[in-house]
Amino acid sequence: MLFAAERLMTSCHLSVDLVIGDVAVTQGKSYWACCVDPSSYLVKVGVGLESKLQEWFQVPQDVVSPRYDPDSGHDSGAEDATVEAPPPYAFLTIGMGKILLPHGAALTAREPNGCTVPLPPRLGVCLDYEQGRVSFYDAVSFRGLWECGVDCSGPVCPAFCFIGGGALHLQELVAAKQERKVTIGGLAKGD
C-alpha cells in the first residue's frame, strides 16, 4: 500500500488534504520536527517550492495517457544535453506505523522501489536552502533516514499531505517545544 501511495494522489477516492506551512524559508538552514500518529492512513511529510505545491495537488497526476509521449520523436540527442534540475518538492510517505524510504535511500533496501522502516516517535526535517538539500531524521536518535536535493529557486515551505485522514503534531520551535494542532476531515492534524 505504501508503494502504491507514491503514485496515488488526486486520482483516488479518498480525501486528500494538503497543509502548507504559513512561513516560507528563503535562506539559511531550518529544522522542525513532527509526530505522526501511527494510526494515520497515509501522510506525506516534506517541503516544496511554494509556487509549485498548490499546482501539484490541483492537477491530477494520472493525466498523462500512454498515447502521450513527452519525447519530441527525434533522436538528435538535444534532450540529453539538459542538466537535470532538482525536483520542486520532496516528501516521505508514512502509513501503518512505517515510513517508505525512496529508492536508493537505504543500502539494505530489498524492494526495487524503496524500503520501509518503523516510524520513529518524532520525525525531523532539515532544509539547507543554500545547498538545495532536505534531510529527514529520526528526531529522537538523530539517525538520518533520507536526504535529497530540492529546488530552492524561490520560497520553500513545509508541507503535509493527508490521504484518507490522519494526525500529526508539528513542533515549530524544537527548543521551545511549542505545538499547534488543526482538525481536518474529522481527525486532528497539526500544521
TrEMBL record:
One of its GO terms (cellular component) is main axon. GO terms for biological process: anterograde synaptic vesicle transport; axonogenesis; microtubule bundle formation; neuron migration. It comes from the Eukaryota. InterPro entries: B30.2/SPRY, B30.2/SPRY_sf, ConA-like_dom_sf, E3_ligase_FN3/SPRY. Residues 1-179 form the B30.2/SPRY domain. PANTHER family: E3 UBIQUITIN-PROTEIN LIGASE TRIM36-RELATED, TRIPARTITE MOTIF-CONTAINING PROTEIN 46. This is TRI46 protein. It comes from Nothoprocta pentlandii. The gene is Trim46_1.
